[in-house]
């Protein structure tokens, strides 16, 4: 079983981290079963967030009786000190714990620092002093914020998108964390579903010994796939490397990563899927996305208000309305 040490934290976790965003989509009983199966088969690191509706509640139900045997990271989107403490206390209550191993700022538009106007980093320090958190982390989709967080030496961990579709600048971020003994947690290791071969995804990330991927899991069969890698970790073959290069060429340029920070849409458009539907149709079973339900969702693109709220929120600087229209026109050719 491969393990990774999260930088200066000294925390040792299984190379397979459990991303608990998707379990908000399944019933509590099923979620608890999947979470406990993951733990009893070697996964000891679980990442969630206050923003993930009832994800924390499900982790609390699954693990309150074995709290000291697992590592939990969660996140706050607070923009001020009052909301920071509200989020932290709510997370502790719902997770049924008196401490959080890694407490993370959730994709802030700036890098919180001691003494800034937000007061957020000082609140983190106070929470650590009180024993309510062990380590301070930050998650982000923005290159500039990620770099600033690394160079500040204020954070124990960085959570950032990283997969075999990542570019050289992303790899530099990963290596910078390693050089500064900062834990690196890889989100979007399957690029929001655009990577369909988890063995290739795992094999690529295995090259980076200090990186912990958190796989978004909501079904038992998905969990079983990753659990199989505990004893038989995939190694990149020549054919896999060829496929990776093919995927990189196909997905080069501007494409929606499906992070969802552009939502909700005032017009009710499911942007995080609709803006990358062309790619999904070419990389997943088409029948699932040509149903009446999805035709209706794609048709809502016609209702776009062109308010550009989605553009202002996109951490990748995409022209989202233009992407939506292109994907809609392409979608209609499949009908």
Proportion of helical residues: 40-55%
Q: Which word captures the global form?
A: globular
Strand content: 5-15%
What structural class do the secondary elements suggest? alpha/beta
| Spatial ordering of strands, largest sheet | 3-4-5-6-7-8-9-10
CATH superfamily of the largest domain: NADP-dependent oxidoreductase domain
Largest sheet: 8 strands, parallel, barrel
Order of helices and strands: EEEHEHEHEHEHEHEHEHHHHHHH
User: What would the average pLDDT be, to the nearest integer?
Assistant: 95
Write down the CATH topology of the largest domain.
Answer: TIM Barrel
Q: In angstroms, what separates the terminal alpha carbons? A: 46 Å
Unreliable sequence segments: none
Integer-rounded radius of gyration: 20 Å
Question: How many helical elements?
Answer: 14
Number of β-strand runs: 10
CATH architecture of the largest domain: Alpha-Beta Barrel
Tally the structural domains: 2
